[in-house]
Write a structure and sequence with these properties.
With about 375 residues, the protein is mainly beta. About 10% of the residues lie in helices and about 40% in strands. A hairpin with a 2-residue loop joins strand 7 and strand 8.
Length: about 375
Amino acid sequence: MSRRATRPLDPQATRAADDELYSRHESDPRPNALYDADGNRQPLDATDPDQAALRSEWMDLYEANGGGVEGSPPSDRETGGSEEPCPHATPSQLVSLTVIDNATQTNVTGAKNWAAVKKSTDDVIVQATTTPNNEETWRQIAWSGDSGSAVTGHPNQRRLSRSTSTRYHVEAALGGVTDHVDVWILWATVTNHTSGTTPANAVQYGSRYDGTETLGAQSYDSGNSAVGKVVPVATITPAGVHAVVRAGWTFERQKMRRDFEDGAQDTSRWDTSWQPDTSHASFQRLTPDNDDKIYDRDAPNIADFGVTDSYERSDNFRQWVEWNGDRCSDHAGWYWRARWKRDQTPQVTHKELSTGAISPLPGPTDNHYSAP
């Protein structure tokens, strides 16, 4: 009986023996038992007596690199025949597992972590590389964890749906080698806080306006000015994402404003479509905290804006979150409505801050106060 490698094969010794054997014969005329005409490696045939010398050479290298063998060595002239064939010189093993489509590692921490925004299409594709890297070997892969669904015609791939915000832990194993990837499907839920107090991790108002952290419609300056203090908060899922996806987040806002000045339409502040209104960076906290939350802040106000007699504001706002430039939440609306009149005490005659929207917004002749 010729020598055999002791089972299970030693992966490190196997790779070393393969590399040394193919390196030794890299300059041999091609095609041959080890290389085809294009220089691609060919696995040894364990049943071909003409390859017995190569199998014996591989076995020497395997043993020299620490692999266990059993049986007696053949003589220098032994070339096969009735002996049992040696094991395959290139055992089936997993090389690596990675994501090849529809997820990214940009602004993601950890070599095994990938992320994508929730979406009804464009599933994430995970792919395994093996040796030999062919379909016969791919069918031997053992998938486990949250391994999604098979990809038709590609047994070395798995498909992960992006339709739900979740974390996938995908594992693959073959030939004593295992690997994994974690894929985070991201989404955020925005809540506009218009009551209570400023959350501890949001930017505080400090001494501005009424000098408190009380949210909502607040008067100050003896009731002659008022402000709508709102803190939009986005809770990102899945839970624990703050440790993995710490960057790439933006908190966006648009406005649609309809104002009247001295009883007439203020054409410079009269929107017929949504306009940009994103907060300055100093008013935002965009690195997720330990509760997986990010924060915005705003404060539309009403006061003596230098008008003769009166001012009226009716403003709709909508907030949303983006990650790496992709929208990552639904719209969340809030509004501010207020009126100011010079000859009244106090001069702020109405103030209102709430979630939702003013519907409909005023038209050009829907002013509350008449011209002086």
